[in-house]
Design brief:
The chain is an all-alpha fold and about 200 residues long. It has one domain (about 1-195). It has eight helices and no strands.
Length: about 200
């Protein structure tokens, strides 16, 4: 009788953990990344409103659409999606045409505006990488490994150099994982689905 009771308690606990992880925490993560990307899109809007770039400029419109795509499909992004997107990109190495066009349009902008637009894009990928890591134990362990490597490298520089190099190991690690994890393949997949849908824009709120 006691064994059956303990088994029932364990089953209820496991079901509770499963519900917490796959429903409540997953929804929280999706809402959190969407809120941050909406805020980033708001910054982009204010950047244009201040006259730094025209609202009808192709580089502004494209970056806004890419933000919309990431906002729209945030709930579907996880490690499994990343793996499939990366494998698909390797077997079908077609160019991300809209991204290539966006880069081309940036070259026509003043240098400081171009750098600011690139910064917006990098912040988007950085936040999405954080989103990916927070939903995967494997990626969390990878983050710790990269952080440790960065801390050791920083300590070695400090030991052998006269001047210490101060870095944030977490931010540096996530920045490195943006390229290592090929997060841009997720951006490409999200944009392809977004452009093929009928609702091509999310209104700024």
């Amino acid at each position: 009788m006691r064994a059956a009771y303990e088994l029932l308690i364990a089953a209820v606990g496991a079901a509770g953990c499963w519900t917490l992880w796959f429903y409540l925490y997953k929804e929280y993560r999706a809402s959190a990344v969407r809120e941050d990307l909406f805020a980033l899109r708001g910054e982009l809007f204010l950047f244009a409103a201040d006259g730094a770039i025209a609202f009808d400029d192709p580089s502004y419109k494209e970056l806004r659409q890419r933000l919309n795509a990431m906002i729209r499909f945030a709930h579907r992004i996880n490690l499994i999606t990343l793996i499939f997107a990366t494998r698909s990109a390797r077997h079908n190495p077609g160019r991300d045409v809209s991204y290539a066009e966006w880069l081309e349009s940036l070259r026509r902008l003043p240098q400081d505006t171009q750098e600011k637009m690139e910064q917006f894009h990098k912040r988007m990928l950085f936040r999405f990488t954080e989103h990916l890591i927070s939903g995967s134990v494997s990626l969390m362990l990878l983050l710790v490994l990269v952080q440790t490597t960065i801390i050791v490298r920083s300590w070695m520089r400090h030991f052998f150099a006269a001047k210490a190099v101060v870095v944030d190991p977490t931010d540096r690690a996530i920045s490195e994982l943006v390229d290592t994890l090929h997060v841009s393949t997720l951006e490409k997949s999200a944009c392809e689905e977004h452009y093929s849908s009928d609702d091509l824009d999310l209104q700024l709120v």
